[in-house]
Specification:
223 residues, 12 helices, mainly alpha, homodimer, disordered C terminus, DNA-binding
DNA sequence: CATTCACATGACTGCATGGTCATATAATGA
DNA sequence: TCATTATATGACCATGCAGTCATGTGAATG
């Protein structure tokens, strides 16, 4: 946790430090991020960083905390799951996740890097993946509702959805090199409406739906 | 490239050095691997490493080269694609890829780490993904043969398959913690026969098939 | 034996890093 | 005005790193 001193800072300065740090940790692996460089770019002395945070890891953790909070907030504001149709809910999640990644590319890259970071287990000692647990719940209850084909185990179904979901935000980011920032601004409002990646999500969901749906029922296609 | 001196070494010593290096680079991100530590574990002087390799990157590159060669060899020996049925060919690729990862877990982890490594572009300046290009070819020709649904773009279809393929080897590795080595030995022979992950591949292929197949034809289910 | 060549070695250099701390500066309040 | 408290600072430290090199060793060659 940051020190009280950090929170006493004038907002502008605090934001500057966070901005610079975020940019740095989002663009480089943990080991390649230098505290000295952050201090430099934020126009403060290196010693000051240690007046605000216990150490480098503490700063990193705080950024992750902010990212997590932002995403939670975003989802709680934009997402409400029906809980009846798995594929509808998945689509909602995909759209929200992708929109968040587009509107907060640095947060997204930060979190993405974290997943394979060298300090992952120092920060998240229990290495369970929360989003995976969540998806598992959805999939299993859908399985009980016979919305999922029975010739596929829950494990594989979860792997299937989770993998596609996790990588998709990054895929979108990679395929819109450079012009994130402006595009991010332009696409706010309706989530994943008419943008080019909105169409991609539709296609992806189509594939997931046919791939996962119970073939015996009428669930293979759009209702 | 390693120096001539390295190739003049007694085989045992050479192998020891490679083994230790491989273990190190497969288990840690590039920046966390220490040449001093490698030398230590391999029972040679640090200076010697630099008599065998130009620098740390050179050693790393050589390991990747060996991994690539091993995988190429493995595929050329175990894989022959019909080129007629996309899904059959995909299943063959999945099985071979997974089997390779199981029999050469360190090579697999090395390659996996490399994909997001901080020195990726120093080693592979053109950042094209060869396996993705290959898949793209398969998918596009299958598209031409109408084996793939027309309401999904080639890009998304490739993303769909490539993502699931790329992550699967790692998924299998993660879910067999600890006892790789013995299991690897036990499962050689027929590729992905009766092992627990053979079943998983079947399920995965089932999902991919239904997800990707052209719904208008008779291609949605096993032939 | 003497010379030459291939290889082995670890002390050493230079550098960057994370982190500390004595000191300086500014703000607060009596 | 003076004393106290909060904050800012950069020189400094210990550590670890990649990479170098003068010296040593030992085998082969004449």
């Amino acid at each position: 946790m940051p020190t009280p001193t950090f929170f006493n800072l004038p907002e502008a300065k605090r934001d500057r430090i966070l901005e610079v740090s975020l940019e740095e940790f989002a663009s480089n692996p943990y080991d390649r991020v230098s505290v000295a460089q952050i201090a430099d770019k934020a126009d403060i002395a290196k010693g000051s960083v240690y007046q605000y945070f216990e150490d480098k890891l503490d700063l990193y953790r705080h950024l992750l905390e902010l990212a997590s909070r932002a995403k939670t907030r975003y989802f709680s504001e934009h997402v409400s799951l029906g809980g009846e149709d798995l594929f509808e809910d998945l689509e909602t999640l995909f759209r929200a996740g992708t929109a968040f990644a587009r509107e907060n590319p640095r947060y997204h890259r930060l979190a993405y890097r974290f997943m394979n970071s060298s300090v992952r287990d120092q920060i998240l000692p229990d290495l369970r993946d929360m989003s995976e647990d969540f998806l598992r719940g959805m999939v299993e209850s859908a399985h009980a509702r016979r919305q999922i084909r029975s010739d596929v185990s829950a494990d594989m179904a979860v792997y299937f959805v989770n993998t596609l979901l996790t990588e998709f935000g990054t895929y979108v980011l990679k395929h819109s090199e450079g012009n994130w920032e402006e595009l991010a601004m332009e696409s706010t409002g309706s989530i994943g409406g008419a943008s080019w990646w909105g169409e991609m999500i539709e296609e992806l969901i189509r594939m997931i739906r046919s791939g996962l749906a119970d073939g015996s029922g009428r669930d293979g296609w759009e209702g």
